[in-house]
Amino acid sequence: MAEIDQATPPVDQLTAMNLNDAIQNHAFSDRVLIRSIVGRSDGGAGLAGQRVRAGGWVKTGREQGKGTFAFLELNDGSCPANLQVIVDAGVAVLSKLVATGTCVVVDGILKSPPEGTRQRIELRVEKVVHIGEVDPAKYPIPKTKLTLEFLRDHLHLRSRTNTIAAIARIRNALAFATHSFFQEHHFLYVHTPIITTSDCEGAGEMFQVTTLISEAEKLEKELIKNPPPSEADIEAARQLVSERGEAVKQLKAAKASKEDIGASVAELNKAKESLLKLEERSKLKPGIPLKDGKIDYNQDFFARQAFLTVSGQLQVETYACAVSNVYTFGPTFRAEHSHTSRHLAEFWMVEPEIAFADLQDDMNCAEAYVKYMCKYLLEQCLDDMEFMAKNYDKGCIERLRMVASTPFVRISYTKAVELLEEAVRDGKKFENEVEWGIDLASEHERYLTEVKFQKPVIVYNYPKGIKAFYMRLNDDLKTVAAMDVLVPKVGELIGGSQREERYEVIRERIMEMGLPLEPYEWYLDLRRYGTVKHCGFGLGFERMILFATGIDNIRDVIPFPRYPGRADL
């Protein structure tokens, strides 16, 4: 595992800024972003003589000149580069400033450092406005090299490291690029539900959403505190209702006044209400409610089984079949007990749907989208990408350039299997056997994209037996109009298909796969009423970040990873 480099990242490739612009405070903060100083093409040299206020966290600090002054490397997260800050002992107590992790806000003058130094500009402090002190003996993120595994145990502080901060900026850039791409191509952003009652994948590995357990626990405590009524209590209440009823009869027979009868009826109603409450309470039983020996989901919050979504695709299709081009971008969940470096229980998916479009259109859109993201990173995040290249994957920038500029290879699944079988005959060993009908394993996908073609590959027309029910059946009745985009480093990045728009065919597919029709009746309605040819795909957002950065473990490219046994914060 590569280790986190806490040294100052390079500044010479930071995004160039207009050197004639006067330095501005952040719009909503009384300070200057460090990026606006060191992120200029001259490294900030042209700002010498300007007074600024800067704030950030100390990456490294050291006292010099026998304690007469201190050097601080300050970073505020706006870029990977640090601002060198010099503080004289007469301005502040230096020992409070130099510990890694200390937060400081300072006023000072930007000055040109002595010739021969690495910095192009430094800040000479005139006043220390704020110090957020750190006890170096207790601070868990020191300036020494730390493994990414170690940082997973300190999620709340790991964003202060250069690596996790760089990944955060890259993730932000890819999210912005995603919205830019689809908005530029006139797609509507649709928020699909996180709580769902349908299983898009048909895999069954879903997190259930229920209040039955908490309600059962609450009831159990309540029944201990307030035991249900006994048979004797209920019998006494029945006797009281009978007596009150008899009293009303007698008053009516005696032709008593309306007031007296009314008062007696009120007493009767009160007795009946008490009896009803007692009878209802006597039916309360501790534990989860059952009906015919099974859990009674009619008693649950949504009056049916509900889950955390594994995909927003089915729901977003309802909008594609009304407003044409749509996409959803949000968290999805999978209750899969997997501890691999490629699996998370909570992850983000980008899922566009295009009406009046077929599999070719789907592949064209997927290719254009991936290229757009690669170009965007190279233009907007080159400084962070250079940091990743230096510390984790020296080929990551070249990989982005290659994908951004190279037409993707397109081959059928059948052709892909033939190429893999050919490789086996030539001596290539795969752990998973190659034959027509298998779901291609990651090793197969990576062989095709990294070894055989050395560029992105789109494989299309997969066997229907390994794909979901909603994918359009081809004329050969053996394959479906599905496609996967394979890229170096991660293998499958995108999975998509032309959707089955023919009512009878998709109904038959649902039944063929052993799925119940009832939960999908609304989905079938899209085919019953005004059906339209349409397609779409899903991109695993964290996989895109793995591909871009060269990081090995998916748990390090999402801010708060959730996986079996861990859901910190």
Automatic annotation (TrEMBL):
Q: Which SMART domains does this chain map to?
A: WHEP-TRS
Please verify whether the record's keywords include Cytoplasm.
no
Location of the WHEP-TRS domain: 233-289
Claim: ATP-binding is one of the keywords in the record: yes
UniProt enzyme class: ligase
Lineage top rank: taxon = Eukaryota
Tell me its EC number(s), please.
6.1.1.22
What InterPro entries does the entry give? Aa-tRNA-synt_II, aa-tRNA-synth_II, aa-tRNA-synth_II/BPL/LPL, Asn-tRNA-ligase, Asp/Asn-tRNA-synth_IIb, NA-bd_OB-fold, NA-bd_OB_tRNA, uS15_NS1_RNA-bd_sf
Q: Which Pfam families match?
A: tRNA-synt_2, tRNA_anti-codon
Q: Which CDD domains match?
A: AsxRS_core (cd00776), EcAsnRS_like_N (cd04318)
List where the protein spans the membrane: none
Q: Where do the Aminoacyl-transfer RNA synthetases class-II family profile domain residues begin and end?
A: 326-559
Name any Gene Ontology BP term: asparaginyl-tRNA aminoacylation
Q: Which reaction is the catalytic activity of this chain?
A: tRNA(Asn) + L-asparagine + ATP = L-asparaginyl-tRNA(Asn) + AMP + diphosphate + H(+)
User: What does the UniProt keyword field contain?
Assistant: Aminoacyl-tRNA synthetase, ATP-binding, Ligase, Nucleotide-binding, Protein biosynthesis
The text of the family note is: Belongs to the class-II aminoacyl-tRNA synthetase family.
Q: What is this protein called?
A: asparagine--tRNA ligase
